[in-house]
Design a protein that fits this description.
alpha/beta; Rossmann fold; Dihydrodipicolinate Reductase, domain 2; 2 domains; six-stranded parallel sheet; 9 helices; 34% helix; binds NADP nicotinamide-adenine-dinucleotide phosphate
Length: 322
Amino acid sequence: MGILRCALLGTGGIANDLLAPSLPFTQRARLWSVLSRSKSNAEAFAARHGAMSPTPAYDELDALLADPALDAVIVATPDRLHAAQCIAAARAGKHVLCEKPLATSVEEARAIVAACEAAGVTLGVAYHLRHHAGHRALVERIRRGAIGRVRHARVQWTFPAPDASNWRASAEVGRWWALASVGTHGLDLLRWVMVESAGEVVALRCLSSSPKFGAAHDESTIVTMKFEDGSTAELFASVLFRSKRRIELFGDDGYAEAEGTLGPRGEGEIRINDELLEFKPTNPYVGELDDFAEAIERRRPPAVDGREALRNVELMDAALPL
Ligand SMILES: NC(=O)c1ccc[n+]([C@@H]2O[C@H](COP(=O)([O-])OP(=O)(O)OC[C@H]3O[C@@H](n4cnc5c(N)ncnc54)[C@H](OP(=O)(O)O)[C@@H]3O)[C@@H](O)[C@H]2O)c1
């Protein structure tokens, strides 16, 4: 297969600042076209990021999907819109890379997975932190026993939102706020580290609160989990505080910590038993996009496939049900 021709659905923060600028640096994927609610906005985005299609700008999804030269869509719209857009793309025979979280309900997430499997298209979900070079080096060392069997893991990711104007905070377009903006990444990292040795999550407890803005959705969320082998994990996600973003892993024979790695840039410091882990920072979005394109080419699952992302939605739904 040659270059993967990708359409971006949505022209907001992640699409404009991180995904479109990363595409030219991938080995296998390029921006082909774009969907916006505003045609002029789509045209400006396509020109700004050098979309390759002779007709790159759309304000209607069906028209964008009708393009036979288009291979894949990258869904970068608010979470509530993911299901309809992913399912339409799958039915049109396009591969799908969906932003996290996959959907805002377990039913929608299942429907997306089913539609992609029925259409025989690849479904990947954009947990870019799996492509952080330091995280990859850390997980490899952990799998080789660097701290013995991991019995507990903790993720803390907070940031201070200026107000509650974000769509995630609203009852109409949002479903979860702290949990969907950053918490879902934490759940993904905890699953990545733990599930292989500890088995599936068998128990989950959650406390959430919206004490500052009185938002419709969680401003702070604490999730605790237990795995099949009795290991445990904690997540603290909040939109209220500046703090050190941290991952901590507690093993039978040692301790590992990552500080400042949770974010867009592939940076931060990781220590295993107080020893600095060497890694070369790379753009995790380039890694994510190349992984998706390679998964299609080699007919293998991407780093996070639909079924893994469905489990993440199941945990979010169990934590904060409707
Ligand atoms: N992995 C990561 O690092 C990361 C980081 C941030 C966000 N995300 C995920 O990416 C997705 C988009 O988040 P974002 O932060 O980019 O959001 P955003 O800045 O608000 O952009 C979302 C875009 O979706 C389009 N859209 C269509 N219908 C909309 C509606 N009813 N309300 C608002 N926007 C609408 C808009 O583009 P048009 O105006 O052109 O239609 C808008 O610019 C979410 O699923 C989010 O969780 C991932």
